[in-house]
Amino acid sequence: MAAEQAMTSTTKVIARADEHDIKLHKASDRVNFGSICEPIDVPYLLGVQTDSFDWLIGSERWKKRVAEDEANGTHTVPHVSGLDEVFQEISPI
């Protein structure tokens, strides 16, 4: 019996909240991206893919870009093709 009293004394009854107690908040802090007037320039994704593939295999187009890059001195194009990099990493001989 003492165990039952200890159990009932520590147990709390939680009642459901009435509908009147629940406050519904309006989502007034929403960001409206439809009001942005500046268009974003989308990159030419096909060009990015073809340039990446040209670099990977070391095609003639990539070699021309490397030659132009060396002539300009800008160094914006990798000067070693992707497969050459992989082969040098695997077998540095």
Distance between the termini: 86 Å
Beta strand %:
under 5%
What's the helix-strand series? HHHH
Oligomer: single chain
Structural category:
mainly alpha
List segments where confidence is low: pLDDT < 50 over at least 5 consecutive residues. Answer: none
Short description:
The protein is mainly alpha-helical. It is built from 4 helices and no strands.
Blueprint (SSEs and pairs):
Elements (H helix, E strand, L loop, with lengths): L1 H9 L34 H13 L2 H13 L9 H9 L3
Structure description:
This protein has 93 residues and is mainly alpha-helical. The protein has 4 helices and no strands. It is elongated, with a radius of gyration of 34 Å. The termini are far apart.
Keywords:
93 residues, elongated
